[in-house]
Amino acid sequence: MSEEKSNKIKIKAIDVRKEFKEGKRKVIALDNLNLKIEEGEFAVIVGPSGCGKSTFLYMIAGFENVTEGKILLDNIPVDKPGNNRGFVFQEFALFPWRTVEGNIRMPLDIAGNLEEAEIKAKVQEFIELVGLEGFEHAYPHTLSGGMKQRVGLARALVYDPDVLLLDEPFGALDAQTRKLMQQELIRIWQKVSSLGKKKTVVFITHSVIEAVYLADKVYVMSARPGHIKAIIDIDIPRPRSYTSDEFIHKREEVLKYLEEEVLIAAQQNREGLHPD
Ligand code: ADP
Ligand code: MG
């Protein structure tokens, strides 16, 4: 995508700090977090468990506020959720009493500004896009993990957001399905980006292979309090091979930065230590 990049900054985090207070205990989840994500970029954030990845993504989504600093979306501080951002959760978060179609149309039902025929057409478009034709009337409990996450993706994309936020969406899938979904996500992202406005993606994972497969840029977060420790450009043309020399080289580069932080995080978690 590098040749198509507009270089417009879509998301900017400036000196972001996030504290959680639980009774007397205070956790500094993020501190001094700065980053810039370009419009149309596929950004992947990796970091050890507990370093504040979900917290940061929730703040871009507007589900959580910042304690200090700013998160700008199109140069405007984020202060609430909005239809310009779609969110895909790790634990699928589908409504069990709604069918595939019912789940995907949920955001449109809530928005309430479309005619029934328009809703039906839109939902069908996204069902086809994510490859769920024939499953329109199936309930979530009858679907495999990969299919549930296809529903999650379609639901996040159905109101045409310019930013797609995904929090370890493939973490619960088996290895083979996970690879397939990585390929599917790239296909879907390229398709929706070619149809209209370029979609900016922020994808969280703790899998280095997943990060290198998907990303234009990998942002490595430090152990808590999380900040951006390194940015690695992944300039490998797509579709990518998981086994090429350049892929393995990038994987090792990301791992080099991540390893140290994973050790620190493991120690924090073991000792229940908090840096404050
Ligand atoms: P990650 O997604 O990188 O695993 P999180 O963003 O979930 O990390 O959490 C970062 C830190 O903030 C952890 O120490 C976690 O316990 C703490 N934390 C997250 N959400 C809350 C909350 N709502 N209340 C208190 N502490 C929280
Ligand atoms: Mg998380």
Give descriptors for this structure.
276 residues, alpha/beta, Rossmann fold, six-stranded mixed sheet, four-stranded antiparallel sheet, 24% strand, binds adenosine-5'-diphosphate, binds magnesium ion
Structural class: alpha/beta
CATH level-1 class of the largest domain: Alpha Beta
- Could you report the average pLDDT, rounded to the nearest whole number? 94
What are the secondary-structure elements, in order, as H or E? EEEHEEEHHHEHEHEEH
What amount of the residues lies in strands? 15-25%
Task: Characterize the largest beta sheet: strand count, sense, and whether it forms a barrel.
Answer: 6 strands, mixed
Spatial order of the strands forming the largest sheet:
6-7-8-3-9-10
Give the number of domains.
2
Radius of gyration over C-alpha positions, nearest whole angstrom: 19 Å
The poorly predicted ranges are none
CATH architecture of the largest domain: 3-Layer(aba) Sandwich
Intertermini distance: 41 Å
- Ligands, deduplicated: adenosine-5'-diphosphate, magnesium ion
Annotation, overall tally of beta strands: 10
Short summary:
With 276 residues, the chain is α/β, with parallel strands linked by helices.
Summarize the SSE layout with pairings.
Blueprint: E1 9-22, E2 25-38, E3 42-46, H1 53-61, E4 68-73, E5 76-77, E6 85-88, H2 100-111, H3 116-129, H4 145-157, E7 163-167, H5 175-195, E8 200-205, H6 208-214, E9 217-221, E10 228-233, H7 245-271
Parallel strand pairs: 3-8, 3-9, 6-7, 7-8
Antiparallel strand pairs: 1-2, 1-4, 4-5, 9-10
Helix pairs in contact: 2-3, 2-4, 3-4, 6-7
Magnesium ion (MG) binds at residues 53-54.
